[in-house]
């Protein structure tokens, strides 16, 4: 029996197995609704690539086997991620600006237009542009049509819109056309390079690429145009640079992640506690001083970019990025998704999906003790893998107890936990890290 098991492990690698499962799952659930010609194209080329991968995998003596496998995985990334997304971009360019794209990407494009006109995107009203598309209505996860609150509030954070400005400007200057998902494609490609660089073992490099690029949870969100890849890239880059002990630039990139989307915020305490614990038994005041000297770009960047929009129009900014999400406004985002809010709505604790409920109470009751517990865990095992796990768990708890918990949140969490597993940081305590 032992010989048989060892023979199976030698004959078929775990990366080939996961590639097969993820590819077929993605094809079955995501591409079955396509017209026959398109569906057959994806199935034919995917199964052909799988067959070639298996042949390379089972052959013992193959020069550059790992390179061939990486090429095939990248081919899958192009086939299952880029081609459907580029097809949607092409269809949008032919049919109209409001077709085949996610509403968040649309609103970002409109916000960039306002910013280039010298107008505050957090103050402006979007009903004249986005209202035309949506007819002023939003269909909730419960199938109820309501006035779309996105025409009144711009929820994207400052770095996301500032980063988009030069791309929008130059694309329109040279091509007279722009799609926000161009940035997401670039972030995806850059993430692939970082992901391959993180693990030390060749097979883990392959597995990390497979779990990221052929993730059946993430692919529909990416193809649909959600912006989670944007914040994930900055989070991933910051942690990668911290692993390389480039603390200053890492802290700057972390600031850009925090300024990209709210989902990066729960990483901050674990990031700084990682550096704190790395300083060892250094006395309190010198430790604070040294950590600030090495991470001041984080604080300066946040104060600068958040400060600009707070000074510009504090009320509009706070309403759009805080109160709109918490349900504190008449035009707040409605309750939806799969979390606690839906359970309370189904149990009639909350009467209407537009009603206010103090979700900050369960978030605090669960999140604060969890934060303390996770910090204690990190103190015992202070590695970047643990930092990422803690980040994912705290984010999971916060989202689950919040006003809405959508499918793309689950996809983003899958990327976080996958990254934690493959980060492979076995560094020893080093007081010189920061």
From TrEMBL:
Keywords: Membrane, Transmembrane, Transmembrane helix
Transmembrane segment boundaries: 12-31, 37-56, 68-90, 157-175, 182-198, 210-240, 252-276, 296-314, 321-345, 357-375, 382-400
Domain of life of the source: Bacteria
Protein's name according to its UniProt entry: Glycosyltransferase RgtA/B/C/D-like domain-containing protein
